[in-house]
User: Which sequence fits this backbone?
């Protein structure tokens, strides 16, 4: 999407990403419709920004927790999540332990894998690697991050929801844009507004 529309939507196509844990085809049209309806291009024009001071609301979608797109520097980002669970017969081969880069899995008394969700990032690597298909995705969804930016004072986006559905992710974007348009006065990025008003104010607006 071009800046003429006032927004940019970047994504990693789940069909071509070997590490994808969700199919973004359900989410992308929802996000694009919300962005189109927000008419951000006209909104920025209404602010009377001069010269090259043109702004763009950036949204990024990643189908896997490797965040192939620029989720962490977007105003609004989503990252695919697959929460693993033991649902089959485990032969304690240890493959899941070997592939987990977060060291979130241990074999409990050599009988079955125990997942430490304080470390697990829901990447789905253990699910794909299990030769017995003993590990399954208990739930699929998206992590939501908000407020990333580059520029003179770069900031990484912050997580605001750990796991939501595609419908909820779209709803949060809609409320986030409404919050942004209400408080944006000079084309500043979303993170600047949130830092000024406080995260509690933003979270209350999207609840």
Assistant:
């Amino acid at each position: 999407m071009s800046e003429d529309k006032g927004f940019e939507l970047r994504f990693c196509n789940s069909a071509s990403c070997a590490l994808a844990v969700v199919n973004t085809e359900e989410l992308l049209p929802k996000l694009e419709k919300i962005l189109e309806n927000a008419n951000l291009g006209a909104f920025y024009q209404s602010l009377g920004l001069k010269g090259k001071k043109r702004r763009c609301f950036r949204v990024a979608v990643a189908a896997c927790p490797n965040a192939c797109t620029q989720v962490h520097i977007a105003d609004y980002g989503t990252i695919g999540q697959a929460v693993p669970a033991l649902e089959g017969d485990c032969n304690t081969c240890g493959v899941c332990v070997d592939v987990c880069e977060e060291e979130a899995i241990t074999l409990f008394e050599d009988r079955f894998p125990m997942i430490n969700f304080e470390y697990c990032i829901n990447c789905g690597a253990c699910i794909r690697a299990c030769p017995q298909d003993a590990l399954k995705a208990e739930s699929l969804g998206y992590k939501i991050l908000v407020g990333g930016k580059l520029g003179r004072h770069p900031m990484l986006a912050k997580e605001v929801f750990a796991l939501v559905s595609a419908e909820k992710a779209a709803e949060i974007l809609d409320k986030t844009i409404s919050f942004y348009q209400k408080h944006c006065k000079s084309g500043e990025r979303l993170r600047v507004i949130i830092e000024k008003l406080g995260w509690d104010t933003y979270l209350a607006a999207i609840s």
User: Anything to note?
Assistant: The longest strand covers residues 135-146. The chain has one domain: 3-88+138-206.
